[in-house]
Specification:
The complex is a heterodimer.
Chain A (H helix, E strand, L loop, with lengths): L9 H5 L3 H5 L3 H26 L31 H7 L1 H29 L1 H16 L2 H12 L3 H27 L3 H8 L4 H37 L11 H12 L5 H28 L6
Helix pairs in contact in A: 3-12, 4-12, 5-6, 5-8, 5-10, 6-8, 7-8, 8-10, 9-10, 10-11, 10-12, 11-12
Chain B lengths: L5 E12 L2 E13 L4 E5 L6 H8 L7 E10 L2 E2 L5 H7 L4 E4 L13 H12 L5 H14 L16 H13 L5 E5 L7 H18 L2 E6 L2 H5 L4 E6 L2 E7 H6 L4 H9 L38 H5 L5 E4 L2 E3 L9
Parallel strand pairs in B: 3-8, 3-9, 6-7, 7-8
Antiparallel strand pairs in B: 1-2, 1-4, 4-5, 9-10, 10-12, 11-12
Classes of the chains: A mainly alpha, B alpha/beta.
Chain lengths: 294, 323
């Protein structure tokens, strides 16, 4: 094999392993592109309090419904808030919700999938039945129903999204474990006198980690869109916190009167963030699938 | 003679399949002494691997041991609890699997397999001591100890099988079961691995069960040989006796099938036909449809296992029990 070429770009010095990613061809570049998009949005949201020209929650910083101009780059909304400042800082809630929901999904879906699949038999049937019945619902409808029951707030949004996506973790992990637990190295571990717990944690779990990573990245993108949907129908957070989802709701009302800028910019941001995560997920799954081990 | 290391009597293993019960191993009795090698020979599907796995009580579901006794150093293995069984596996009996390519955990370094195994069975050993022992074990099986930090995919097939063997002997077990340890390897590596196993057997004073479909490789390396056919032990004798005086027609066929480079023969002497379906066994002797000397009697009644000479057992209608 050739020696790996080391790219002397700035990015590869910042992100370790980037040079190996770019050698995986298109898939590697997709991951890198997704990573750049996500990282810049996260950074933008994090530094927004210092760089935003106006306080995103303050009303009447300018005349209402001004079209984009040099003073208000993206214009103002009907409350006279600066849309540019709101776009800069509005990703916080969405990121919080998606991160939290992915963590909840990981904490519930992964152990459940591992355990159920490894135990097999009736236990497995039981959990599969529950997961499949959740899976049978349309995701957004179920999330809306749960969010309506739980009420507003970041945690409640994350919970309702997590309920919808736990089955996808469960299913992927379950099917992976089904094949891995028949591998000779698992049999060899049993023959060496390993406990069931050891087999599960040291032999099976590390081998499903690549799939978990892929599911989680795809889940991130879905969670963002669902979070936007929840806020859009008013099940998100209260209006004084800048949020792209809320701006969408607000902007939809104004769109008919020709003020396109209130809805367009936050909408683009949501699409961009979801795109970033999707690219990462697609690239990672492409890289993980052929099992490029040798 | 002193008590054998492992004594198995009337061992019977059944798989409860949907279409009925399959007796993969039926009424098998044998014994192995310390530092002995027992060869188990037979075609695919004759119950060799099931026999090996049943010695560790690892027969995969839906199989179960329905009858028999396994005595290891005088202890009744079949009466062990799940916990005692776990302690026994790896420590007293260990297993070398057929496929070295997938028998190591792909996400763990070679050394980690050893450290985990050693510390699982001997919790008081420190990690450092375990590493020291690992290096010695790797050296014993002919692998540079620097490879301790390699991942399994960085090793060749033969090296991986050496690692598997090193893992099998890591806790100094009294019995190692090697289930077709060389099937996935080429002939030269095969000979090296088998010689290594025998050398380690002598060095560590352990007994070895060598399961294979190739009679030629166990003939010169084992003390005793079991020839299996369709779940039955058709012949069980010292390997010299198997070689000089094979009594069962199946064993004779296997011996004839070994290619001889010194003869000018152009064809190989194969045994015609294939082993019977265990769900649909022929009446009488299980081998008669392929037997060159089958008589009417063979189609009617199943022959018993006859003791024809000292330490020589045959299951064939031609032979009578010698008192």
């Amino acid at each position: 094999m050739d020696k790996p070429k080391i790219r002397k770009g700035m990015l590869s010095s910042i992100i370790p392993g980037l040079s190996s990613l770019s050698q995986r061809g298109l898939a590697g570049w997709l991951v890198v592109l997704g990573l750049i998009i996500v990282a810049s949005i996260v950074t933008m949201t994090a530094i927004s309090p210092w760089v935003a020209p106006y306080n995103p929650s303050t009303i009447n910083v300018g005349p209402p419904l001004m079209s984009p101009n040099s003073q208000f780059l993206f214009g103002t909304n009907d409350l006279g808030q600066d849309v540019f400042s709101r776009v800069l800082s509005g990703g916080g809630i969405m990121l919080e919700v998606s991160i939290l929901s992915v963590i909840i999904c990981l904490l519930i879906g992964v152990p459940l999938g591992l355990f159920s699949s490894y135990a097999g038999g009736l236990v497995d049937r039981f959990f599969c039945l529950i997961m499949d019945s959740i899976y049978a619902f349309p995701g957004l409808v179920l999330a809306i129903a749960i969010a309506a029951m739980l009420g507003r707030g970041v945690t409640n949004m994350a919970l309702s999204i997590a309920v919808v996506y736990v089955p996808s973790y469960f299913r992927v992990i379950r099917s992976q474990v089904l094949s891995i637990k028949e591998m000779p190295y698992v049999e060899a571990a049993n023959a060496a006198g390993a406990k069931g717990r050891t087999v599960l944690s040291r032999y099976i779990f590390p081998n499903v980690v690549p799939s978990i990573v892929v599911v989680a990245t795809v889940n991130f993108a879905d969670a963002i869109l669902t979070a936007a949907g929840l806020t859009f129908i008013g099940l998100g957070v209260s209006a004084d916190i800048p949020d792209w989802g809320w701006d969408l709701t607000n902007g939809r009302r104004l769109l008919s009167s020709g003020t396109w800028w209130v809805i367009t910019y936050p909408g683009l941001m949501i699409i961009l963030l979801a795109l970033g995560f999707t690219l990462m997920g697609e690239g990672l799954s492409e890289m993980a699938n052929p099992r490029l081990r040798e | 003679m002193s008590r054998p290391l492992l004594a198995v009597s009337d061992l019977t293993v059944e798989y409860w399949a949907r279409r009925g019960k399959v007796r993969a191993v039926e009424d098998i009795s044998f014994s192995i002494g310390k530092s002995e090698t027992l060869g188990v020979v037979g075609e695919s599907g004759c119950g060799k691997s099931t026999l090996g796995l049943s010695l560790m009580r690892l027969v995969p579901y839906p199989g179960r041991i329905v009858k028999g006794e396994i005595q290891l150093k005088g202890r009744d293995v079949l009466g062990f609890s799940a916990n005692e069984m776990r302690n026994l596996r790896g420590k007293d009996i260990s297993y070398v699997f057929q496929d070295p390519m997938t028998s190591l955990n792909p996400v763990k370094k070679v050394g980690a397999h050893f450290v985990e195994l050693i510390r699982a069975h001997e919790p008081r050993v420190s990690e450092k001591d375990a590493v020291v022992r690992t290096r010695k074990l790797l050296k014993d099986v002919g692998i540079q100890s620097e490879r301790i930090g390699d991942y399994p995919h960085q090793l060749s097939g033969g090296m991986r099988q050496r690692v598997m063997i090193a893992l099998a002997i890591a806790l100094n077990p009294s019995l190692v079961i090697a289930d077709e340890p060389t099937t996935a390897l080429d002939v030269i590596v095969q000979a090296k691995i088998l010689d290594l196993l025998n050398a380690l057997r002598d060095a560590y004073g352990m007994a070895l069960v060598l399961i294979t479909h190739d009679l030629s490789i166990v003939l010169e390396r084992s003390n005793k040989i079991i020839v299996m056919y369709a779940g039955h032990m058709v012949e069980y004798a010292r390997s010299e006796d198997i070689y000089r005086n094979p009594q069962h027609p199946y064993t004779q066929g296997l011996l004839k099938a070994i290619p001889n480079v010194e003869l000018d023969e152009q064809t190989l002497n194969a045994i015609a036909g294939s082993p019977p379906d265990l769900l649909n066994l022929p009446k009488g002797c299980r081998f008669w449809p392929r037997c060159y000397c089958a008589k009417e009697k063979c189609r009617e009644e199943e022959p018993p296992l006859a003791n024809t000479e000292p330490d020589h057992y045959v299951r064939c209608g031609k032979y009578k029990e010698v008192e």
